[in-house]
C-alpha cells in the first residue's frame, strides 16, 4: 500500500465529522456559533515568539475602538506541526480561525484547498502590499489572487570573522565572492564554514538558495500542480551539488555538519575555529545579548562582519534564501470585515518596525528599514533589505511537503552528495512522490 503525506487537498475530501473529533486544540466550534454582543472576538493562531504577536494583537484591539478584540492562540513549535494543526481545523470548516500566521511555503497549499480568504478589493490589496519587498510578495499570491499579507520576512546573510578573512586575503563584501573562494579561504587558514546540514527544512533552504543562485529551480511548471516537473537535473542543480559535496568533504566542514541547525551553526561560527557562516540576521542580536550577559567577548563581536549571501558563480548575483511569516484570514471566519481590519493593523509599517525591534525578525516593508531605531539595532539593515528584495523563494506549490521531503531524503548526508547523480536521483524520487508512487 502506498502512503502519502496528508495534504490539505486530501483532508478537504475527508469526512468533516471525523476530522472534528480528531481536533486536540482549544475552542470548540459550537461556542463560536452562539450570539454575542459587544466587540467581535477574533482568534489569531500564532507561531511561537517572545510575545510580539500578542502585543500587536493587544494594540490593534485597543485601536479598533471596540470593533474587535483579538485573542492569540499558540501553534506548535515546529513548522510542520503548525501546518498540520491548521490544516486539520480548516478541513473541518472551523470558523474559529479568523487569522493565522503561516510559514510562507504553506500558503500555496492552503490557498489551493480554498482554506484562505482571498483579498479582492483593490483598496485592500493596495494597502496590504504597498511598499512590500519583492521577495515576500511573490509568496503571498496564488493563482493571481492575494491570499495572505506579508507580516515579516527573513533572509540569510554571509557572516564572517574579519580577522580570518584578512589573513586569507579575501574580501567577502566584494560582489564576486563565491562559495568556492570562501571554502578555499577557510581551508587555507585551518578554519570552518558553518551551514545548516541537518535533515530538516534548513537543508532545503540551503539547497534552494544554491540552485536559485545558479539560475535554476527545484521545481518548474508549478502551475500544473502534482504534474509539476522536478528540475534539479540541470546545470544549476549540478553546480549546487558540487558545492555541497565539496564543502562536506573538505577540511573546512564543521564536525557536526550533518546534524547542524541554526543554533549549531551560530555556535560553530563563534568558536575559535569559526571563519564563515550562512545564517539568519538573529545571530548578530544574539551575539550582542551574549556580550551583555558576559558569555561572549566584545572583541569577538567586533570581529563579526557581514555580506550578501555568497555567489555560486562570479557571473551571476546570488539569490539569498527567503523565509518569514504571512498572515491570512481563514476562509470560514464569521467576521470577515473585522478580520480584514485586524490584518491591516497587524501588518502595517508601525507593526513591522515594532516586531522587528521586539523579536528581531526583519520587516517586509522597505521603508521600515529607514527607521532610526531599526538602523541602530541592525547595522546591516540596508543589506537585509536588499537581500530580502532579491531573495529566491522555495517552490510555490500546493505539494511543497512532498518536494521538501524528497530533497531532504536525497541530499542527506551532505558528504554523499555528488553531481550529477544526486540531482538526477532527486528528480526521480520527487516525481514518484508527486505521483503518489513513493512512500514518504
Fold and architecture overview:
Helices cover 44% and strands 13% of the residues. With 440 residues, the chain is an alpha/beta fold. Helix 9 (162-168) packs across helix 10 (179-189) and helix 20 runs antiparallel to helix 21 (421-435).
Strand order of the largest sheet: 2-1-3-13-6
Largest sheet features: 5 strands, mixed
Task: State the domain count.
Answer: 2
Low-confidence stretches: 1-6, 10-35
The fourth-level CATH homologous superfamily of the largest domain is: Periplasmic binding protein-like II
Q: Provide the residue-averaged pLDDT.
A: 92
CATH architectural type of the largest domain: 3-Layer(aba) Sandwich
CA gyration radius, whole angstroms:
22 Å
**Percentage of residues in helical conformation:** 40-55%
Shape: globular
> What is the strand tally?
13
Strand content bin: 5-15%
For this structure, the CATH topology of the largest domain is D-Maltodextrin-Binding Protein, domain 2
Number of helices: 21
Structural class: alpha/beta
CATH class of the largest domain: Alpha Beta
- Distance, first to last CA: 12 Å
Amino acid at each position: 500500500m502506498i502512503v502519502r503525506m496528508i495534504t490539505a487537498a486530501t483532508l478537504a475530501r475527508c469526512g468533516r465529522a471525523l476530522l472534528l473529533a480528531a481536533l486536540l486544540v482549544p475552542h470548540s466550534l459550537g461556542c463560536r456559533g452562539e450570539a454575542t454582543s459587544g466587540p467581535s472576538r477574533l482568534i489569531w493562531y500564532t507561531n511561537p515568539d517572545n510575545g510580539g504577536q500578542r502585543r500587536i494583537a493587544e494594540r490593534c484591539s485597543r485601536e479598533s475602538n471596540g470593533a474587535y478584540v483579538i485573542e492569540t492562540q499558540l501553534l506548535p513549535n515546529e513548522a510542520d506541526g503548525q501546518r498540520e494543526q491548521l490544516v486539520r481545523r480548516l478541513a473541518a470548516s472551523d470558523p474559529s480561525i479568523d487569522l493565522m500566521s503561516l510559514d510562507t511555503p504553506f500558503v500555496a497549499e492552503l490557498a489551493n484547498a480554498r482554506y484562505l480568504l482571498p483579498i479582492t478589493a483593490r483598496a485592500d490589496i493596495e494597502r496590504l502590499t504597498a511598499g512590500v519587498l519583492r521577495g515576500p510578495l511573490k509568496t503571498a499570491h496564488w493563482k493571481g489572487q492575494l491570499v495572505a499579507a506579508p507580516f515579516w520576512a527573513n533572509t540569510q546573510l554571509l557572516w564572517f570573522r574579519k580577522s580570518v578573512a584578512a589573513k586569507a586575503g579575501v574580501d567577502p563584501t566584494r560582489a564576486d565572492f563565491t562559495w568556492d573562494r570562501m571554502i578555499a579561504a577557510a581551508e587555507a587558514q585551518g578554519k570552518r564554514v558553518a551551514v545548516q546540514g541537518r535533515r530538516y527544512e534548513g537543508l532545503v533552504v540551503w539547497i534552494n538558495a544554491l540552485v536559485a543562485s545558479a539560475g535554476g529551480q527545484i521545481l518548474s511548471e508549478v502551475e500544473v500542480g502534482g504534474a509539476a516537473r522536478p528540475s534539479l537535473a540541470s546545470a544549476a542543480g549540478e553546480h549546487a551539488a558540487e558545492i555541497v559535496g565539496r564543502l562536506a568533504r573538505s577540511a573546512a566542514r564543521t564536525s557536526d555538519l550533518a546534524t547542524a541547525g541554526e543554533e549549531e551553526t551560530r555556535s560553530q561560527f563563534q568558536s575559535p575555529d569559526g571563519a564563515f557562516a550562512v545564517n539568519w540576521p538573529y545571530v548578530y542580536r544574539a551575539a550582542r545579548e551574549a556580550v551583555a550577559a558576559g558569555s561572549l567577548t566584545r572583541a569577538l563581536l567586533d570581529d563579526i562582519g557581514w555580506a550578501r549571501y555568497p555567489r555560486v558563480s562570479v557571473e551571476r548575483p546570488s539569490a539569498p534564501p527567503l523565509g518569514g511569516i504571512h498572515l491570512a484570514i481563514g476562509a470560514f471566519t464569521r467576521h470577515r470585515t473585522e478580520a480584514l481590519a485586524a490584518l491591516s493593523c497587524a501588518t502595517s509599517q508601525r507593526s513591522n518596525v515594532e516586531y522587528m525591534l521586539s523579536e528581531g525578525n526583519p520587516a517586509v516593508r522597505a521603508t521600515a528599514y529607514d527607521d532610526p531605531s531599526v538602523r541602530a539595532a541592525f547595522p546591516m539593515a540596508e543589506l537585509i533589505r536588499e537581500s530580502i528584495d532579491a531573495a529566491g523563494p522555495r517552490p510555490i506549490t500546493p505539494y511543497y511537503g512532498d518536494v521538501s521531503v524528497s530533497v531532504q531524503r536525497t541530499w542527506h548526508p551532505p558528504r554523499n552528495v555528488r553531481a550529477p547523480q544526486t540531482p538526477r536521483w532527486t528528480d526521480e524520487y520527487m516525481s514518484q512522490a508527486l505521483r503518489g508512487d513513493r512512500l514518504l
